């Protein structure tokens, strides 16, 4: 059977994978702090016993778009987002360090400051722990301060500072759990005092719904074209069988 069938089949299969990537982006258009995955296709020559005249398609996710999304005001003191470039450090489920751009923070029963997904927020001194019956305030430089209930607003005691980092985006990668980490072999970055955060805001997803829909429609048309090529290959094969029968 002509190799055209396998070439078209590989193209259709890879188109489906590409559509899954864009569909996942579109599904997270309203997810706070979500960073869209990029997708691209490239040709792969087939080497074997004959000349490499056939080229297969391969879809891949080469990187993640780490650009920030729009800030959305919530008015909640423990909603914190990074202004401009930078990341907040959190402790991942495996105990390693991961990074987020925004956080809907909460204080658990043990006084540990966590994200709404349960990840502990890291400070320059490790986990940030807040004493009971305290009001917490987070400054623009990431300073975490507390005051007792009923105390004057000017009576603040600094307990720690959010660990804010600004690594090279090329050294970052997004894991299957959606968290951003340093790429394998890269050391954890040190805290950067120049990064600023804003309280009362969360960062929206950086997904552009119109762009993702357009990409999905384009890939759908390409998928239909590959199906037509597969039918053409089948028709050619049937026609050749008839010619051989006549001979």
The number of distinct β-strands equals: 19
| Class by alpha and beta content | alpha+beta
Can you write the helix and strand succession as a string? HEEEEEEEEEEEEEEEEEEEH
Largest sheet: 3 strands, antiparallel
Strand content: 25-35%
Which of globular, elongated, flat, extended, rod-shaped describes the shape? Answer: elongated
Radius of gyration: 26 Å
Q: Average pLDDT value?
A: 88
Give a structural overview.
With 247 residues, this protein is of the alpha+beta class. The chain has 2 domains: 4-66 and 207-246, no CATH class; 71-203, no CATH class. 25% of the residues lie in helices and 29% in strands. It has 2 helices and 19 strands. It has helices spanning 4-27, 209-246; strands at 40-45, 55-60, 71-73, 79-83, 87-91, 97-100, 102-104, 106-107, 113-114, 122-123, 126-127, 134-138, 143-148, 157-161, 164-165, 172-174, 180-182, 196-199, 201-203. The strands form 8 sheets. Strands 7-4-18 form a 3-stranded antiparallel sheet, with no helix packed on it. The longest helix has 38 residues, at 209-246. The chain is elongated.
């Amino acid at each position: 059977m002509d190799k055209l069938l396998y070439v078209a089949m590989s193209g259709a299969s890879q188109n489906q994978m590409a559509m899954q990537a864009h569909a996942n982006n579109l599904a997270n258009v309203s997810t706070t702090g979500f960073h869209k995955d990029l997708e691209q296709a490239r040709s792969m020559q087939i080497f074997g016993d004959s000349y490499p005249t056939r080229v297969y398609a391969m879809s891949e996710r080469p990187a993640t778009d780490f650009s920030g999304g729009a800030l959305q005001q919530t008015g909640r003191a423990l909603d914190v987002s990074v202004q401009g470039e930078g990341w907040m450090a959190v402790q991942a489920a495996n105990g390693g360090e991961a990074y987020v751009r925004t956080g809907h923070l909460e204080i658990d029963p043990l006084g540990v400051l966590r994200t709404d997904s349960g990840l502990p927020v890291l400070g320059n001194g490790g986990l940030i722990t807040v004493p009971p019956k305290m009001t917490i305030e987070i400054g623009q430089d990431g300073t975490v301060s507390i005051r007792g209930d009923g105390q004057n607003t000017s009576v603040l005691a600094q307990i720690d500072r959010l660990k804010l980092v600004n690594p090279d985006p090329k050294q970052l990668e997004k894991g299957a759990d959606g968290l951003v980490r340093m790429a394998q072999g890269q050391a954890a970055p040190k805290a950067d005092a120049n990064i600023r955060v804003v309280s009362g805001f969360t960062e929206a997803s950086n997904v552009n719904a119109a762009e993702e829909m357009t990409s999905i429609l384009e890939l759908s048309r390409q998928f239909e074209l590959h199906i037509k090529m597969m039918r053409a290959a089948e028709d050619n094969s049937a026609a050749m069988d008839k010619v051989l029968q006549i001979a």
